[in-house]
UniProtKB/TrEMBL annotation:
The keyword rRNA processing belongs to this UniProt entry's keyword annotation: yes
Gene3D superfamilies: Vaccinia Virus protein VP39
Enzyme type, top EC level: transferase
Pfam families: RsmJ
Any GO molecular function: 23S rRNA (adenine(2030)-N(6))-methyltransferase activity
Name the record gives this protein: Ribosomal RNA large subunit methyltransferase J
Organism the protein comes from: Saccharospirillum mangrovi
Active site: D165
Length: 282
């Protein structure tokens, strides 16, 4: 039984990190004419109403995307396409809708590219279909995203961006994700993989990263943004992305933006911090 609904969390600091990196990667893929496929294993509902009951109950977006959009200070070249895209889903400065990863990808992909989206929750799979509308490039299925991923790799395009963004509702999800990544890379070593993880308990996070490093997958990176100091009793204090085969320019281009994100999104007098780390060599 799935209880997680992303509508409570859409636009929070974790989405800001995840979606700004996703956009950077997709823009980089668009530089080459050759088509590619975008695979989103845990797609969510597509577009979220941040004025709706669920987002209003937590108000998480207020300490995430709203802080970035409301500030007058210029943002970085890395972040600007992301904030512009979020603004384009809204009118003026009034934040009403926040696009999730599938809706962001739908805007960025070209006519010859494809989107393959899996979402296990029935209501969110239906919302996803409604949000994305009729689009010949998009294939949506309601099933387990990690099993489906194994079945569709390698893709015929031989170019792919894979976003793995689980809700980690069950402890075993961490092991399942590691196994799925290993299998995916065995089948399709040249894909670009983006894996999101939460920081809830620092030692558990470091063990998870250590397990990933043990897989010896080449060219693996870690980008992490914590908006609060580590604290095992406060829930999610930050989150990170594991990137495999990212654009060569990402680390250099993201450095300043990670600091800017921390400066603007950190709670409690700038606690927390950022990590930008190469985990394995090419
Ligand atoms: C963090 S949310 C996804 C957010 C989305 N990727 C975004 O960035 O906008 C995780 C989603 O995974 C779904 N989910 C949970 N287990 C799943 C599974 N085994 N396969 C596919 N989807 C799953 C949940 O219902 C939830 O909508």
């Amino acid at each position: 039984m799935l209880s997680y609904r992303h509508s409570f969390h859409a636009g929070n600091h974790a989405d800001v990190l995840k979606h700004s990196i996703l956009m950077y990667v997709l823009q980089y893929m668009n530089r080459k004419e050759k088509p590619y496929v975008y695979i989103d294993t845990h797609a969510g509902a597509g577009v979220y109403d941040v004025l709706g009951q669920q987002a209003q109950k937590t108000g998480e977006y207020l300490d995430g995307i709203a802080r970035l959009l409301n500030q007058k200070q210029p943002t970085t070249d890395f972040l600007k396409p992301y904030t512009d895209l979020i603004a384009s889903f809204n009118s003026g400065q009034n934040l009403h809708y926040y696009p999730g990863s599938p809706a962001i990808a739908q805007r960025l992909l070209r006519p010859s590219d494809r989107l393959i989206l899996t979402e296990l929750h029935g209501a969110d799979a239906a919302n996803l279909r409604d949000s994305l509308g009729r689009d010949r490039r998009v294939y949506i299925s309601q099933e387990d995203g990690l099993k489906h991923l194994k079945a569709i790799l390698p893709p015929p395009e031989k170019r792919a961006v894979v976003l793995i963004d689980p809700s980690y509702e069950i402890k075993t999800d961490y092991d399942l994700v590691i196994r799925a990544i290993q299998q995916a890379v065995q089948r399709f070593a040249t894909g670009t993989y983006l894996l999101w993880y939460p920081v809830i308990n620092r030692s558990a996070t470091e063990s998870f990263i250590a397990e990933l490093v043990k897989c010896q997958i080449p060219d693996m990176w870690r980008l992490e943004l914590c908006v609060e100091a580590d604290n095992n009793d406060r829930g999610m204090t930050g989150s990170g992305m594991i990137l495999i085969n990212p654009p060569y320019s990402l680390a250099g281009d993201a450095t300043e933006s990670m600091a800017v994100l921390h400066q603007r999104l950190a709670q409690d007098m700038g606690q927390g911090g950022t990590i930008l780390q190469r985990l394995t060599e090419e």
